[in-house]
Design a protein that fits this description.
binds adenosine monophosphate, five-stranded antiparallel β-sheet, two-stranded antiparallel sheet, about 525 residues, binds magnesium ion, 17 helices, 11 strands
Length: about 525
C-alpha cells in the first residue's frame, strides 16, 4: 500500500503532554475540575467532501498540493481518521459572556488534534471545529453548519491576507450529514448541511482558559497553564517568575491592542467579544456573527443577539478589549498579588492602542506621521462626515487616494472620485457637499504640508485601505452556491481575498458597495449566533 503524504506530519503535543488531563475519558457532558483538557475523539461522519483548502496554510504544515487533494486529507481533516501522533482533546475554559461570568464553557465543538512541528521547527496546533460532541458541549451538538463554516474559513484567510492577526483555516469539508438549526431562533428548525473547518494557530488558548482556574480557586493549575504558555509561545520572555508573568501580561495587552487597531482599520466587527473568544496570542479567534462595516457606523453590530444593548458594536471594540484584559488581570492576580504593577501593565494597552491607532489613521490618510495638533481635528471631522450620509467605509478610503490634489476646485469636482462610496445620492445636499469640500481642501493642504509626494501618499493609502474585503453579502452569495453543491463561489472569493490591496482588473464587481437587495437580507446585514 502507498504511504500517504500526510504520514510525514510530525507531532509534538506539548499542551496535552505537559498539562494535567481530565482522568475521566467518557464523552459525557460534565464539569471538569483540576484539568486543562479532556481527551475526546472526533465523531466519524458518513460522506465527507472537500469544499476548499488554503494552500498557504498547508505550506505552514509542509503539506503539498497533492497531499491536500488526496482522499486521506478529507478523511483526516473531517475527523474520520487519526494520524499517528494525534492525541485529540478538548480544552476547559470559562468566560464572561456579554459582561457576565458564565462559568465553564470549554471546547464544545472544537477538538484539537495535536501540534504539528514543521521543517522550520514551528509548532502549529490543528483544531477541528464542528467534529462532534465533547464533555464541554453543554446543551448543544458539537456540530457546525456549512454557512457558518464558509464564513469562518473565508474570513480567517481574508484577515490574514489583510495583515490582521488571526487564527488560520486549512480546510473546509462537508460532512455529508445534516445538522438541525433554528437559524432565526423563531421556532422553525430545519436541516442544514454540516461541515468541519480545520483551524490552525500556534495555540488556541483564550483568556477564559486562565479565568476558569482562578474562578475555581485552582491556583496551582492556573500557574501550570501560565508557565506552560510562557515556555511555549512566549519563551523570549525567559523562565517563568512573577516579573515574567507581568511582562507576559503586558505583552498580551500590546498584542491585543495591535489586533484591535487592525480591526478598526479594515472595518471588522467581531460580534461576540466574550472573554472566551479572546486569544492570548492577540489573534482574531472564533468567527461567529461577525460582519464588515459597509456604511461607516460606529454603532453597528452584525449580531442580532446583541441588537438591543450593542455591547460589541464597532466603536466599542477598543474599550471592550480593555475590559476583557482587566478580567484576565483579575484571573492571574493570585500569581502576582500586587495591584500596582498589574495596573501599569494594563496601561500598556491604552498607550499601545493610542499609538497604533494614530499610525493607522495616518496610514489610511497617507500622511506619514500623525500630528495630533492638526490630525485630531481633521480625523474627527472626517468621521462625522462619514456618518452624516451613508458612506461605504472601504470605498471611501480607497477612493480618497484618487483625489486630485488641487484646492482650487469646486466641491463637485473635488468629490467626483468619491461618488461610488455613497449609498443614497439624494443625501448629498448642497450643505453636505460644501462641508465635505472644505474637509477635502483641509486634507489636501495637510498632505501637501507634510512634504510627502503624491505618489508616496497614494502608495501608503493603497497599502492601508483594502480594495477587497469579505463583504457580508459576498460571503452569503458564496454560501448560497455552496449549499447547492457549487463550491466555485467559495474558491473564487478565497482567491480574490488573497490580494486585497491589489487592483485585480476584471474583479471589480467584488469591490462594489452592498447592493440594495442585501440591505435587509439575513446573512447580509444581521446574523444570529446560530451556527
Ligand atoms: P461562542 O460564543 O460561539 O464562541 O461559543 C460559546 C460556547 O458555546 C463555547 O464553549 C462553544 O464551544 C459552545 N458552543 C457553541 N456552539 C456549539 C455547538 N453547536 N455545540 C457545542 N458547543 C457549542
Ligand atoms: Mg467561542
Amino acid at each position: 500500500m502507498m504511504n500517504s503524504p500526510l504520514d510525514n506530519l510530525t507531532f509534538d503535543n506539548r499542551f496535552s503532554r505537559e498539562l494535567p488531563a481530565d482522568p475521566e475519558t467518557t464523552n459525557l457532558r460534565r464539569q471538569v475540575f483540576a484539568a486543562c483538557y479532556s481527551s475526546v475523539s472526533p465523531t466519524p461522519v458518513a460522506n465527507p467532501q472537500l469544499v476548499a483548502y488554503a494552500s498557504e496554510v498547508a505550506e505552514l504544515l509542509d503539506l503539498s498540493e497533492d497531499a491536500c487533494q488526496s482522499a486521506d486529507f478529507t478523511q483526516i481533516f473531517v475527523g474520520n481518521r487519526l494520524l499517528p501522533g494525534m492525541t485529540p482533546y478538548a480544552t476547559c475554559y470559562g468566560g464572561h459572556q456579554f459582561g457576565n461570568w458564565a462559568g465553564q464553557l470549554g471546547d464544545g465543538r472544537a477538538i484539537n488534534l495535536g501540534e504539528v512541528v514543521n521543517r522550520r521547527g514551528e509548532h502549529w496546533t490543528l483544531q477541528l471545529k464542528g467534529a462532534g460532541e465533547t464533555p464541554y458541549s453543554r446543551n448543544s451538538d458539537g456540530l457546525a453548519v456549512l454557512r457558518s463554516s464558509v464564513r469562518e474559513f473565508l474570513c480567517s484567510e481574508a484577515m490574514h491576507h489583510l495583515g490582521v492577526p488571526t487564527t488560520r483555516a486549512l480546510s473546509l469539508i462537508l460532512t455529508g450529514e445534516e445538522v438541525i438549526r433554528d437559524m432565526f431562533y423563531n421556532g422553525n428548525p430545519k436541516p442544514e448541511p454540516g461541515a468541519v473547518v480545520c483551524r490552525v494557530a500556534p495555540s488556541f488558548t483564550r483568556f477564559g482558559n486562565f479565568q476558569i482556574f482562578a474562578a475555581r480557586g485552582e491556583i496551582e493549575l492556573l500557574k501550570k497553564l501560565l508557565d506552560h504558555t510562557i515556555r511555549t509561545d512566549f519563551s523570549h520572555l525567559g523562565e517563568p517568575s512573577v516579573a515574567v508573568y507581568l511582562a507576559w501580561f503586558e505583552e498580551v495587552c500590546r498584542r491585543t491592542a495591535a489586533m484591535i487597531v487592525q480591526w478598526q482599520r479594515v472595518g471588522f466587527v467581531h460580534g461576540v467579544m466574550n472573554t472566551d473568544n479572546m486569544s492570548i496570542l492577540g489573534l482574531t479567534i472564533d468567527y461567529g456573527p461577525y460582519g464588515w462595516l459597509e456604511n461607516y457606523d460606529p454603532n453597528w453590530t452584525p449580531n442580532t443577539t446583541d441588537a438591543e444593548e450593542r455591547r460589541y458594536r464597532f466603536g466599542s471594540q477598543p474599550q471592550i478589549a480593555f475590559w476583557n484584559l482587566a478580567q484576565l488581570a483579575n484571573a492571574i492576580y493570585p500569581l502576582i498579588e500586587q495591584v500596582e504593577p498589574l495596573q501599569q501593565a494594563i496601561d500598556a494597552y491604552k498607550e499601545s492602542f493610542e499609538q497604533g491607532w494614530q499610525n493607522m489613521v495616518a496610514a489610511k490618510l497617507g500622511l506619514g506621521v500623525y500630528d495630533a495638533a492638526t490630525d485630531d481635528a481633521l480625523n474627527t471631522e472626517l468621521l462625522i462626515l462619514l456618518q452624516l450620509v451613508e458612506t461605504d467605509m472601504t470605498l471611501f478610503y480607497r477612493k480618497l487616494a484618487l483625489l486630485v490634489m488641487d484646492v482650487e476646485q469646486s466641491d463637485d469636482a473635488l468629490m467626483a472620485p468619491l461618488l461610488a462610496a455613497y449609498y443614497v445620492p439624494e443625501q448629498l445636499s448642497e450643505d453636505y457637499k460644501e462641508r465635505l469640500g472644505n474637509w477635502l481642501r483641509s486634507y489636501i493642504k495637510r498632505a501637501q504640508d507634510s512634504g510627502i509626494s503624491n505618489a508616496e501618499r497614494i502608495k501608503t493609502m493603497n497599502a492601508a485601505n483594502p480594495k477587497y474585503v469579505l463583504r457580508n453579502y459576498l460571503a452569503q452569495l458564496a454560501i448560497d452556491k455552496a449549499e447547492q453543491g457549487d463550491f466555485s463561489g467559495v474558491n473564487e472569493l478565497l482567491e480574490i481575498l488573497r490580494h486585497p490591496y491589489d487592483e485585480q482588473p476584471g474583479k471589480e464587481e467584488y469591490a462594489l458597495k452592498r447592493p440594495d437587495w442585501a440591505r435587509q437580507r439575513a446573512g447580509c446585514s444581521m446574523l444570529s449566533c446560530s451556527s
